[in-house]
Amino acid sequence: xxxxxxxxxxxxxxxxxxxxxxxxxxxxxxxxxxxxxxxxxxxxxxxxxxxxxxxxxxxxxxxxxxxxxxxxxxxxxxxxxxxxxxxxxxxxxxxxxxxxxxxxxxxxxxxxxxxxxxxxxxxxxxxxxxxxxxxxxxxxxxxxxxxxxxxxxxxxxxxxxxxxxxxxxxxxxxxxxxxxxxxxxxxxxxxxxxxxxxxxxxxxxxxxxxxxxxxxxxxxxxxxxxxxxxxxxxxxxxxxxxxxxxxxxxxxxxxxxxxxxxxxxxxxxxxxxxxxxxxxxxxxxxxxxxxxxxxxxxxxxxxxxxxxxxxxxxxxxxxxxxxxxxxxxxxxxxxxxxxxxxxxxxxxxxxxxxxxxxxxxxxxxxxxxx
Length: 370
Fold this sequence. Notes:
By secondary structure, this protein is α/β, with parallel strands linked by helices.
């Protein structure tokens, strides 16, 4: 049946990295939500957030989840650990889960997680907060209503900066096993938005390169797309811009009109040919590349669990971007176009490395007894 909830949802967060503050800032002021605890392998990181928000902190999530009453666990750990942590918690604890992007690296794990959640009667909430951007919601509604007509072309362009010092922060960054490159780590939100606006991709042909940093993964990827609806598309994602981030843009061209969403993180509607006067009302200023979408996203989690209002971003929706990313990598690896119906899996993304995984997967107490 899942966890019992009454008038308040208690959240616990596993992983106290860059994104954690966004979640905690929202949860600390969100009606009918409470922060139950935080956890990180590094005590200085866990304690910093615990003391800032006045909540218990842990370095072992098993200890946290057996000591605290928790309704929802937020998985904010290294990307390649998302599926393993989710599966472990689904097996052992009576909680729902929020999973930051990407929900998994290996496409085989998508089905494993969905099956485990279904068997346990738990809910999964993949985080794609940029779907809540005013510009995105405006363009999506207008496409659904037919204002742009038949889609002809969809394009993504992400031009951000991640220097060597970014990758040097943690051992998992810049690895195929636990991170993926600019497309998986930085570009996934915009890949998701392109699919959200344009529909599913049928064929993809991609190329990638590593230009300005010493890591295993790419800092530059380009891809050409053919959508199922007959439209064409392109994706350009790089973290090789210097010296700073400067844009994340999505454009949609139809036979009746066009729309362009730009800004630091797809937060500005800069072109809407059916009525350009609507651009200002559908744009917003944001404090950083994370945007403002975590608040409505988490509010919808609370509404789902307390009011029975289905969250608008299902697990199946969350899978789409991962499947396309894997197909892009596979195309670049093979040097040939690939069809999405073949469910192509990248040979590199999410590959297993015990020495890396063991750094982040905490054995439960019963696994360490003699």
